[in-house]
């Protein structure tokens, strides 16, 4: 089913004619695009590869640790300063070893009383 953009959305009205071509107003224009469906599969494969590599990291940047823990910059540096989470320096950049992050997460208390520690 061709997609159409409305003129009031600020975009040109266009529709897909065939894979690799788009009809803009009354002209058919060749575009450099993979066949329909292939791009989505490529994106999924790339996302899986990214996640696999991320899961195999030995060290994380401050920003990555913030995203993993779901905390902000101040909270993370509070954990560093209290000694709860160990940070290291590599060429002037603050990093956290994956083993230190895993140990920190494993040492967190249970959210609910009576739960077994895993």
Report the major sheet. 3 strands, antiparallel
How far is the first residue's CA from the last residue's CA?
49 Å
Low-confidence stretches are 5-9
Which H/E pattern describes the elements? EEEHEHHEEH
Which structural class best describes the helix and strand composition?
Answer: alpha+beta
Rg calculated over all Cα atoms: 24 Å
Give the percentage of residues in beta strands.
15-25%
Task: Give the overall shape, derived from the CA principal axes.
Answer: elongated
Strand order of the largest sheet: 1-2-3
User: Would you count the extended β strands for me?
Assistant: 6
Summarize the amount of helix as a percent range: 25-40%
Treating each run of at least 4 consecutive H or I residues as one helix, how many helices? 4
Total separate domains: 2
| Mean pLDDT metric | 78
Description:
The protein has 118 residues and is of the alpha+beta class. It has 2 domains: 1-37, no CATH class; 59-107. It is built from 4 helices and 6 strands. It has a 3-stranded antiparallel sheet with strand order 1-2-3, with no helix packed on it. Strand 5 (88-90) and strand 6 (93-97) form a beta hairpin. The longest helix is centred in the middle third of the chain and has 18 residues, at 38-55. The chain is elongated and about 65 Å long. Residues 5-9 have low confidence and may be disordered.
């Amino acid at each position: 089913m061709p997609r159409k953009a409305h003129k009031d959305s600020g975009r040109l009205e266009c529709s897909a004619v065939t894979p690799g071509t788009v009809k803009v107003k009354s002209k058919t224009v060749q575009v450099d695009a993979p066949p329909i469906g292939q791009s989505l599969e490529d994106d999924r494969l790339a996302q899986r590869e990214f996640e696999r590599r991320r899961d195999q990291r030995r060290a994380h940047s401050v920003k990555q640790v913030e995203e993993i823990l779901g905390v902000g910059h101040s909270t993370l540096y509070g954990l560093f300063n209290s000694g709860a989470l160990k940070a290291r320096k590599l060429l002037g950049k603050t990093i956290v070893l994956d083993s230190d992050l895993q140990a920190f997460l494993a040492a967190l208390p249970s959210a609910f009383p009576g739960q077994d520690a895993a």
